[in-house]
């Protein structure tokens, strides 16, 4: 039997994105393969969020090409993304997930079981009937993660998933990210929090002014950065 096709690796080959005269990403060459989380870091405006949207397929490059498992222009059937401020539908937490399951084509007979499993995974098992918009910020982010996982993704993109959360809520989200990664789902995450990057990253990609300035395994990157930009950024100094 033929092995099931995978959307991984995701390959960026000389990818550029422009908006009028502004270059947002410049000649990005990057491979996102299976394994531990890949964490994108860099100053605000460096291109992290844009790179995630390109990898998800929400944007098309102005130049170069992106392939998913060796193919171009692939529908995002096994990709999911969670934004920094996810929108909550005007319905219960459980109904938010059931709608995501329906959109993913999951048979209705499986909805109750899958909804319960996903809510338990993100620690919201007791809040299935609560209005999603009445959940706290951290609970809403966890619900957004459960909705994204409803489509059984091979790769999960996270854009600043713990921004503005308190330490307790941040830890809860980070624990879910670890659990997801242990299920062999590739996590690609942008964060401004260097502590979070240290805690979660298997490898790190640092962007500055729309270019990748350094990439490496997390321990080597944090202990022995090779570029001046990385050393400056890790020292907490302004990178302009």
- Structure annotation, total helices: 8
- Using only CA atoms, what is the Rg? 18 Å
What's the CATH architecture of the largest domain?
3-Layer(aba) Sandwich
> What oligomeric state best describes the polypeptide chains here?
single chain
Your description of this structure?
Helices cover 33% and strands 24% of the residues. With 240 residues, the protein is of the alpha/beta class. The chain folds into two domains: 1-78 and 153-166 and 177-240, Rossmann fold; 88-152, no CATH class. The strands form two sheets. A six-stranded mixed β-sheet has the order 5-6-7-3-8-9, sandwiched between helices. Strands 2-1-4 form a three-stranded antiparallel β-sheet, with helices on one face. 39% of the residues are buried.
């Amino acid at each position: 039997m033929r092995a099931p096709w995978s959307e991984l690796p995701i390959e960026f080959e000389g990818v550029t994105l422009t908006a009028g005269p502004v270059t947002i990403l410049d000649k990005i060459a990057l491979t996102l393969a299976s394994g531990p989380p890949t964490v994108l870091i860099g100053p605000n405006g460096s291109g992290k969020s844009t790179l995630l949207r390109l990898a998800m397929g929400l944007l098309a490059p102005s130049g170069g090409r992106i392939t998913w498992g060796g193919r171009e222009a692939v529908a995002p059937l096994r990709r999911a993304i969670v934004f920094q401020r996810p929108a909550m539908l005007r319905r219960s937490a459980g109904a938010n997930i059931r709608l995501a399951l329906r959109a993913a084509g999951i048979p209705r007979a499986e909805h109750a079981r899958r909804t319960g499993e996903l809510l338990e995974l993100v620690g919201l098992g007791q809040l299935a009937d609560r209005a999603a918009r009445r959940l706290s910020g951290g609970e809403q982010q966890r619900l957004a993660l459960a909705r994204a996982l409803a489509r059984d993704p091979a790769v999960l993109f996270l854009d600043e998933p713990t921004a503005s959360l308190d330490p307790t809520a941040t830890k809860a989200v980070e624990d879910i990210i670890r659990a997801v990664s242990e299920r062999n789902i590739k996590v690609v995450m942008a964060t401004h929090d260097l502590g979070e990057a240290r805690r979660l990253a298997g490898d790190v990609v640092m962007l500055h002014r729309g270019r990748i300035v350094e990439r490496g395994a997390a321990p080597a990157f944090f202990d022995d950065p090779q570029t001046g930009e990385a050393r400056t950024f890790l020292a907490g100094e302004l990178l302009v």
